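Weekly puzzle thread! Below is a chain. First person to post its structure in token form gets bragging rights.
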Amino acid sequence: MNPKDTCAIAGVGLTKLARRTPGVSSIGFTLEGCKRAIEDAGLTKDDVDGLLVVAPTQAGERHGWATRIAAYLGISSNFTAAVECGGATPTVMVQMATMAINAGMCHTVVCCYGWQNNPVDVPPSLPPGLEFTLPYGDLAAIPFKAQIARRHMHDFGTTSKQLGAVAVAFRKHANMNPNAQMYGKPMTLEDHQNSRWVVEPLRLFDCCLLTDGGGAVVVTSAERAKDMKNRPVYISGWGQAHSAEFMSPWRDPQVKGWEGGKAADQAFNMAGLTRKDIDVCQFYDGFTILVIIELEAYGFCKMGEGGPFVEDGRLELGGELPSNTAGGLLSEGHTFGMAHIVEGVRQLRGECGERQAKDAETAFITGYGGAPHEYPPTLSYSTLILRR
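Winning reply:
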């Protein structure tokens, strides 16, 4: 059975996004996101019988995290799980919700996320393999992505100004989004080039934001969605690919291509669409270099051509491939990609006002996670194609 268009997203919700929001816990943000999404669908908690939650990065003693969220919501759930694929998790949860509904386990699933950065969780010990990288200052994602950026520059001539073109495009969109963390803070390419180094060749504006906030989406059957409050947005295709493509000699991306191509091909084949059929994209943009790699991985341009592709406003509204129209992780806020799904739905509903992509009927949404900054460096690509 092809699951194309068998399910739909009927409701979406986001909390306020900010660098610091004292007094609200991760659970608090998760619950608020759920409440907003359920209300947006015109439902009550009693209409929900499935719940998927982004698992906390450091679980500690928080066993039963998803069941705890369900208990706070007062939901009697037939299908509940905490899911952990890093930044790929929200898109993976929508895929899982669709499969559970088609399997008859439940009929309406809330996929949700919440995050509070302060106080930051401290792991009881170093993650496996970090002892090989920590002595060299390679801690967390930024140094590793800096190495990837430097290699891309070496192999293909990619420039810092091309990275800046990504950041500038998404900041323009954030300045049309009052809920964006960087709303009211315009940025030029000169601003990008003058921003401080974090880890060369990545500058401050090449790196995503630190964000407190939460969000959720409601997934249900296409049939049920027809009778709900808003126009349904159909889930037409999806895919996943999990690999260790950055670890030699696991594979050579220049020979075999980026692993994400598999996740894209699965989604487009399921949906019966091509790249040229996509009207708006929401790329997982933890770093500007990641957007360039994704454009290549997902087939919007050839390997090594991502840098030139982002020039001349191609990713901006009115451009060839309007992307991250709410600002993305770089300028709207870091929500593990949950806000990318919310924005994709709102674009297809035509609710985005000043930042609305003209005549948007299809959206391509991606997630990207894993542990690229630990040994072995693993990653997960995930994709969704939504249709009006």
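Puzzle host: Confirmed. Bonus trivia for everyone else. The mean pLDDT is 91.
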